[in-house]
């Protein structure tokens, strides 16, 4: 929940302790992950590696200021617009047509978004969490041998990426990179943008390989 939780000392200590998890080496994707995603992982890991834990309070305060500037939409001269799809879709309002469309996607998939300090369902954090849940459920379906359900979820993921995340998150991430003063959020912006691009391509590649396998079997 990087984009919706204000950084505090506890979060920084936990991330610093687990920074090795941000390495791409154990993932088995060497040479496959987009450069932007790899660069983002390294940027965040480097930021955490250089943290002076004896000054953790000061680091948390500095990141809290970054959080406000980058993610709260205080004013145009101070930072970028807030991370709501409706805002980046140009509606100019929250809880408009785009917000309701995202909410319907959640409802149709059985996902109940929990209100967080009054945030609307098209906040980037909720949209990313929705994708995470669909991917997790898809993986469980494959493990159970339920190919029909797995493919349904794969198509749902592709639809949500195409109709929502892929339409606006790149602009949001570019704004984060433009206004950020510390490497922490710049790195997460690169991770987010790189992951969306990677996931989009992975879905297409996997569906293409499945179609090829079916043609081979039928032959």
What is the secondary structure topology, with strand pairs?
Layout: H1 9-17, H2 35-49, H3 56-71, H4 85-88, H5 97-108, H6 124-144, H7 147-179, H8 183-218
Helix pairs in contact: 2-8, 6-7, 7-8
Structure described in brief:
This protein is 67% helix and 0% strand. With 219 residues, it is mostly helical. The chain is globular.
Structure report:
The chain is mainly α and 219 residues long. The protein contains eight helices and no strands. The protein has one domain (9-218): TorD-like (Orthogonal Bundle), CATH 1.10.3480. Helix content is 67%, strand content 0%.
Average pLDDT taken over every residue: 86
Class by SSE composition = mainly alpha
Q: Describe the largest sheet.
A: none
User: Rg from C-alpha positions?
Assistant: 19 Å
* CATH topology (level 3) name: TorD-like
Q: Give a count of the beta strands, DSSP E runs of length 2 or more.
A: 0
What proportion of the residues is helical, as a percent range?
55-70%
**Ranges with pLDDT <50 over ≥5 residues?**
215-219
Tell me what the CATH architecture is.
Orthogonal Bundle
N-to-C series of helices and strands: HHHHHHHH
What number of structural domains do the residues give?
1
Which descriptor suits the 3D outline? globular
In DSSP terms, counting alpha (H) and pi (I) runs of 4 or more, how many helices?
8
Give the C-level CATH assignment. Mainly Alpha
Strand content: under 5%
């Amino acid at each position: 929940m990087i984009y919706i939780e204000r950084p505090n000392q506890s979060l920084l200590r936990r991330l610093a302790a687990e920074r090795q998890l941000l390495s791409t080496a154990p993932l088995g994707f060497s040479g496959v992950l987009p450069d932007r995603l790899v660069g983002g992982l390294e940027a965040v890991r480097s930021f955490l590696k250089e943290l002076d834990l004896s000054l953790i309070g000061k680091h948390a305060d500095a990141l809290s200021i970054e959080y406000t500037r980058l993610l709260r939409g205080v004013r145009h001269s101070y930072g970028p617009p807030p991370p709501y799809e409706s805002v980046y879709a140009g509606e100019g309002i929250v809880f408009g047509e785009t917000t309701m469309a995202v909410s319907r996607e959640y409802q149709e998939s059985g996902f109940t978004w929990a209100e967080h300090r009054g945030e609307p369902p098209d906040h980037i954090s909720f949209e990313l969490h929705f994708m995470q849940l669909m991917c997790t459920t898809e993986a469980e379906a494959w493990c159970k041998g339920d190919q029909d359900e797995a493919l349904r979820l794969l198509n749902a993921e592709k639809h949500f990426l195409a109709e929502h995340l892929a339409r606006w998150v790149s602009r949001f991430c570019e704004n984060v990179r433009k206004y950020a003063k510390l490497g922490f959020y710049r790195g997460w912006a690169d991770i987010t943008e790189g992951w969306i691009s990677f996931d989009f391509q992975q879905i297409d590649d996997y569906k293409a390989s499945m179609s090829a396998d079916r043609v081979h079997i039928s032959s």
